[in-house]
Amino acid sequence: MQLDHDQLHRLLEVLADSDIQEFRLEGDDFRLEVRRNLPTQTVMAPVMSAPLPAAEQAPAADPAATGNPPPAATASRSDLLDITAPMVGTFYRAPAPGEDAFVEVGNRINVGQTVCILEAMKLMNELEAEVSGEVVEILVDNGTPVEFGQVLMRVRPA
Question: Is 15 among the domain residues?
Fold first, then answer.
């Protein structure tokens, strides 16, 4: 599949006029992901691998400013960083059923390391760590639905 500049421009115009918040298109040599109106993330970022021009995104809403704080599993500790869900989806600790989990409590993680998968609309989104450190808590059970901004794990930064 090929996508020229004019087709990309028309596609982005159509997406801008719709209420679609997330869109992914993959070709032989590219991947286009458009996400908008998603809450900001504390420690995680979705995988972005294509060297394609980024679409302008609307500013992310701050959950604290809207009066709807993200659900918290337990009280936060100041020496730990939260890894939060950047989208609504189903949390998976392993790449497939029966395989080892990406991380366990006590594991050291590095920037860019996959720590879990969030399935949203039948798409498997690998979440990568934005900090290095030690996983102190995993707050969500495998196969559990999660909300925007929900704390998934806590990490003691290195």
Answer: no
Under 8 Å between Cβ of 113 and 129: yes
Q: What is the pLDDT of residue 69?
A: 46
Model pLDDT, residue 137: 94
Q: Is 75 within the bounds of a domain?
A: yes
CATH number at 137 reads: 2.40.50.100
pLDDT along the chain (158 residues), means of 10: 75 78 77 66 45 45 48 58 93 93 95 94 91 94 93 93
Per the structure, the complete domain to which residue 134 belongs is given by 64-157
d(CA 42, CA 56): 21
The domain tally of the chain equals 1
